[in-house]
Amino acid sequence: MPQARATAPTRGYTASKDELQRRLARIEGQVRGVSKMVAEDRYCIDVLTQIAAIEAALDKVALGLLDDHARVCVLGGEESEREQRAEEMMAAVGRLMRRG
Amino acid sequence: MPQARATAPTRGYTASKDELQRRLARIEGQVRGVSKMVAEDRYCIDVLTQIAAIEAALDKVALGLLDDHARVCVLGGEESEREQRAEEMMAAVGRLMRRG
Amino acid sequence: MPQARATAPTRGYTASKDELQRRLARIEGQVRGVSKMVAEDRYCIDVLTQIAAIEAALDKVALGLLDDHARVCVLGGEESEREQRAEEMMAAVGRLMRRG
Amino acid sequence: MPQARATAPTRGYTASKDELQRRLARIEGQVRGVSKMVAEDRYCIDVLTQIAAIEAALDKVALGLLDDHARVCVLGGEESEREQRAEEMMAAVGRLMRRG
Fold first, then answer.
1. Taking the CB of residue A64, how many other CB atoms lie within 10 A of it?
2. Closest CA to A17 of D54, C25, D37
3. Least CB-CB distance to B28: which of C5, C31, C61?
4. Residue B96 CB: number of other CB atoms within 10 A?
5. Is the CB of B66 less than 8 angstroms away from the CB of A90?
6. Under 8 Å CB-to-CB from A80, ≥6 apart: which residues?
7. Can you give the pTM of this predicted structure?
8. A98: closest CA of chain B, how far (Å)
9. Distances (CA, A) of A3 to A66, A92, D47
10. Nearest chain C Cα to D63, which residue?
């Protein structure tokens, strides 16, 4: 697996790497913001609203990665390779749907 | 869309159709059971536990269907067809993850 | 627990019982519809869309029940009783959030 | 709202504030780790697994906050105040269940 993953087409998200990292930096800031809210004894319902927003942002990143992976799955490589990637993808979907 | 979908390989779940229907019949019975619980004024936390169980069973059916679809996606048909199916699949994943 | 649950105020959803049962009957019909879709070899992405709709409907029922329960929690009974109900409620929320 | 929330018992999570901040610091580190994985072109399925782990950790923080809030809801304050807090809590639960 690791060596197969070293080749460019396997990554699947190279194209929008900057965008992904921008979004992750924003999410990191949101988590820091939640910590600050806790430090300041902010009302816990407001903290929960922020946490829900962070999870929504993470789901969006995850769906973007999944989409890239699905595209790579069906396009590149041989049949057996595509099949293995599809399997890995479904396991990842199960974990994200919290049923994995 | 409909005509392309009429050919056998597109279905993706033919193999375990009986099993799927057995599981759906069980889920239908669980929903009926919840209705009966409500009719009998059962404690609402027990009703909620049942609802969570039904959702877990539905997620399992959905993941099974997704898995079949992913397999068909990467195996059958031409590249453009596989790509379209991958797109449809990701939209379905988004809806199941409640972000669609 | 069971005897405490036999008294009317504990139920929490008596008021909208008919509405709840109507919604559950509709959900039961939707599950039956999914089974029919499978029998007819309908395209699996369409089946998945239906499953996501059923889960949304179940979540709505669950949130309604939780809301009634929360109201009963904070209004009726003595402090120790209210505390126990709040605990049971949070366990139910955890299960519905798939983390219980 | 703000002034009512300024008194200690309303916060609900004061007791385990350090623990909460420790967990949030860990989550922040995990998000940074995901960004690093993206920078290093790590296999996207591994990135998705990390994202699912972060969401699980966030859900745990959210459930802890909800639990504290539920306790405060049913214990402190007058009936009308408790009722309002229960309402706010259910709205937060809906957002966390992604149905809000």
1. 17
2. D37
3. C31
4. 24
5. yes
6. none
7. 0.83
8. 9
9. 21, 20, 17
10. C94
Task: Kindly determine whether residue A75 and residue B82, on different chains, have CB atoms separated by under 8 Å.
Answer: yes
How far is residue B71's CA from residue C46's CA, in Å, rounded to a whole number?
Answer: 17
Locus of tokens 């898995």: B67
pLDDT in tens, D21-75: 999 999 999 999 999 999 999 999 999 999 999 999 999 999 999 988 888 877 7
Nearest residue to B47 (alpha-carbon basis) of D97, C17, C34:
C17
pLDDT along chain C (100 residues), means of 10: 40 68 97 96 93 95 90 80 88 84
- Contacting chains of B (3 CB pairs or more, <8 Å) are A, C, D
Chain A residues close to C98, C-beta within 8 Å: 98-99
Q: How far apart are CA B15 and CA A26, in angstroms?
A: 45
Task: Dig out the tokens for D60 from the structure.
Answer: 């745990």
Chain-chain contact of B99 with A75 (C-beta, under 8 angstroms): no
Q: Considering only alpha carbons, which residue of chain C is nearest residue B56?
A: C98
Task: Record the tokens describing residue B83, joined without a space.
Answer: 């790509």
- Chain D residues closer than 8 Å to C96 by CB: 97
Question: Do A99 and C98 count as a contact with CB atoms less than 8 A apart?
Answer: yes
Query: What type of residue sits at position A28?
Result: E
DSSP symbols for D31-63: HHHHHHHHHTT--HHHHHHHHHHHHHHHHHHHH
Nearest residue in chain A measured CA to CA from C96: A98
Question: Which chain D positions have a beta carbon within 8 Å of B98's beta carbon?
Answer: 98-99
Helix B79-96 with B44-75: angle, nearest 10 deg? 170
Which chains have 3+ CB pairs within 8 A of A? B, C, D
Q: Could you count the other beta carbons within 10 Å of the beta carbon of residue D1? A: 11
Report the alpha-carbon distance of residue D33 to residue D51 in Å, rounded. Answer: 10
Reference A66, options A99, A97, A28; nearest CA is A97
Burial of B90 (0-12, 13-18, 19+ CB in 10 A): buried
B18 alpha carbon, distance to own chain's centre: 14
What CA–CA distance (Å, rounded) separates A12 from A73? 9
Nearest Cα of chain C lies from the Cα of B77 at a distance, in angstroms, of 15
Q: Tell me what ipTM this predicted complex has.
A: 0.83
